[in-house]
């Protein structure tokens, strides 16, 4: 429901009745600041400090940085899959991976994420490569035997 809320600088203004005007907002802020004595008590600051205190240790910061790097790499892979399935624009993927190249050069955490992906995929891909090589050798031997027979 939209209603006419009066004039602003001589023009009729139609607005949402649930959205307060700037003057209403400033009046509410003045009443709140007056009742709390300028700002809320320092108890809220203590709550914020207590909430973030587990991240003050070096171990926790390292875990956060590792998780951030993992999320960035994972997001890049998801974006690449989205571009291949035509769910997102390829230019966004290109720009994101340009940023990731810079991040890789500067961040040891991102390098570690790529290294862990490489360590995970390398044994799997080596098995596939050895299977292909073995099949290739078998088929090559069959061809050699057929040529020798002729």
Textual characterization of the structure:
Keywords: Membrane, Transmembrane, Transmembrane helix. Residues 1-24 are annotated as: Disordered. This is Transposon protein. It comes from Cladocopium goreaui. The chain crosses the membrane at residues 73-97. The chain has 150 residues and is mostly helical. The chain has one domain (41-149). It contains five helices and two strands; from the N terminus they run ββααααα. The chain has helices at 22-36, 43-52, 58-84, 90-106, 108-149; strands at residues 3-8, 11-15. It has a two-stranded antiparallel ribbon with strand order 1-2. Helix 3 runs antiparallel to helix 4 (90-106), helix 3 packs across helix 5 (108-149) and helix 4 (90-106) crosses helix 5. The protein is elongated, with a radius of gyration of 31 Å. 3% of the residues are buried. The mean pLDDT is 74.
Short description:
The chain is mainly α and 150 residues long.
Question: What composes the largest sheet?
Answer: 2 strands, antiparallel
Mean pLDDT: 74
Shape type:
elongated
Q: What strand line-up does the widest sheet have?
A: 1-2
SS content category: mainly alpha
Q: Termini distance?
A: 90 Å
Radius of gyration: 31 Å
Key phrases:
150 residues, mainly alpha, two-stranded antiparallel sheet
Which helices and strands, and how do they pair?
Elements: E1 3-8, E2 11-15, H1 22-36, H2 43-52, H3 58-84, H4 90-106, H5 108-149
Antiparallel strand pairs: 1-2
Helix pairs in contact: 3-4, 3-5, 4-5
């Amino acid at each position: 429901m939209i209603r006419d809320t009066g004039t602003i600088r001589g023009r009729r203004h139609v607005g949402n009745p649930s959205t307060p005007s700037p003057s209403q907002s400033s009046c509410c802020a003045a009443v709140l600041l007056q009742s709390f004595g300028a700002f809320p008590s320092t108890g809220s600051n203590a709550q914020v400090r207590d909430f973030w205190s587990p991240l003050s240790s070096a171990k926790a910061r390292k875990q956060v940085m590792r998780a951030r790097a993992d999320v960035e790499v994972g997001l890049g892979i998801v974006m690449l899959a989205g571009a291949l399935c035509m769910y997102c624009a390829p230019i966004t993927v290109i720009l994101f991976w340009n940023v990731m190249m810079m991040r890789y050069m500067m961040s040891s955490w991102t390098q570690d994420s790529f290294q862990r992906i490489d360590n995970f995929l390398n044994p799997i891909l080596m098995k596939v490569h050895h299977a292909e090589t073995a099949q290739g050798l078998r088929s090559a031997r069959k061809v050699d035997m057929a040529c020798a027979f002729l």
